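Project standup — Tuesday

K.O.: blocked on the structure for the chain from last sprint. Re-posting the sequence here as requested.
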Amino acid sequence: MSRVPMTAQGAAQLEAELKQLKSETRPRIIQAIAEARAHGDLKENAEYHAAREQQGFTEGRIQEIEGKLSHAQVIDVSQLPKTGKVVFGTTVVLSDEETGEEHRYQIVGEDEADAKAGRVSVTSPIARALIGKEEGEIASVQAPSGVKEYEILEVLYL
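H.V.: unblocked you, prediction finished:
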C-alpha cells in the first residue's frame, strides 16, 4: 500500500481517537460483556449481543486507525519552505472571479477533509486545480455547475 499524506494535526487527531478507543471504550465494552454474561443464557440476552456488536465496531475502528497511521506520510506544514506555491497542507485564500467572494481552504488528506471547517481533500477537484499554482495565479475548477475560476490571493503555511 502506498503512503497516504496526512497533516500533523490530522495524525494527532487519529492518535487521540486510537488512545481513547483502547484505554476507555474497549475496557468499558469488556466490562459490559462480562456483566451481560453474568445474567445467564446468552442466546436470548440482548445486552450481551449489543455489547458484542459494539465490540466488533470498536475493534474494526482500532484496526482501521492503526492501518491509516502505519501508512501515513505525516507532513508538518510549518516546516515546509514558504515559496508561495500551493502544496499539500497549505491554507489557500481564494477570490471567486465571478462573485468576488473570498474562500479559505486548507488542503488535507482524505480522512481529514471537512468542507464546513474549510478543509478539502487533496483529491478533490478544487485541491487538484490549486496544487502547484502560486499567489496571483488563476485556478480553473470543474464544478457541477460548470467551470469556476478562482484567483489565489494568499498561500499560508500554518
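K.O.: great, moving the ticket to review. The chain has three helices and seven strands. The two ends are 29 Å apart (CA to CA).
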